[in-house]
From TrEMBL:
Keyword terms, alphabetized: Nucleus
Domain F5/8 type C: 1-66
The keyword Cytoplasm is assigned to this record: no
Name of protein: Nuclear receptor 2C2-associated protein
Keyword flag Nucleus: yes
Protein location: Nucleus
Organism: Callipepla squamata
Family that this chain belongs to: Belongs to the NR2C2AP family.
Length: 152
């Protein structure tokens, strides 16, 4: 299987909130722009989330995520579904509260242990829910989010 980035111009993305509704400075597009100085910054509240609606069915193999330390999630829930179906839980992820890039693997690769596991699943929609924010007000800051796998 050849892995490739699955988030592209045809991927419809939504987020739960944007800090002060300032989409120009903190909008969802900044998670995918590969710019180290921009980020998505949620507003206050519990259970912030990101949804990705792919243009065609994909098999997710890896998730790369970079939080701002102090504004990360203690637990992330991954849910997915095929078109016309209800979201079902795929897995829980337990990222660290650090600024470094964190990478998940669907399977162990090259003898490396995964920071957290992603169950490889064919889907059309992926939802990542950020629970238990390390920020007192429930804000989440994501500098980089990349989903890798294959288009089916």
């Amino acid at each position: 299987m050849t892995m490739e980035p699955l988030v592209c111009a045809d991927t419809a993305t939504r987020v739960s909130s944007v800090l002060n509704r300032d989409v120009k400075q903190f909008g969802k597009k900044h998670m995918f722009d590969a710019n180290e100085e921009t980020c998505w910054n949620s507003d206050q509240g519990s259970h912030q989330w990101v949804t990705l609606d792919f243009a065609r069915t994909v098999r997710v193999s890896q998730l790369h995520i970079q939080f701002q330390g102090g504004f990360s999630s203690r637990r992330c829930t991954l849910e997915g579904c095929r078109t016309g179906e209800e979201l079902v839980k795929i897995s829980d992820l337990y990222p660290e509260d650090i600024h470094a890039m964190q990478i998940s693997f669907g399977t162990l690769q090259a003898g490396r242990a995964a920071l957290f596991q992603v169950e490889e699943t064919a889907l059309d929609k992926l939802k990542i829910t950020f629970e238990n924010s390390t920020d007192f007000f429930g804000r989440i800051v994501v500098y980089h989010l990349q989903v890798l796998g294959e288009r089916l």
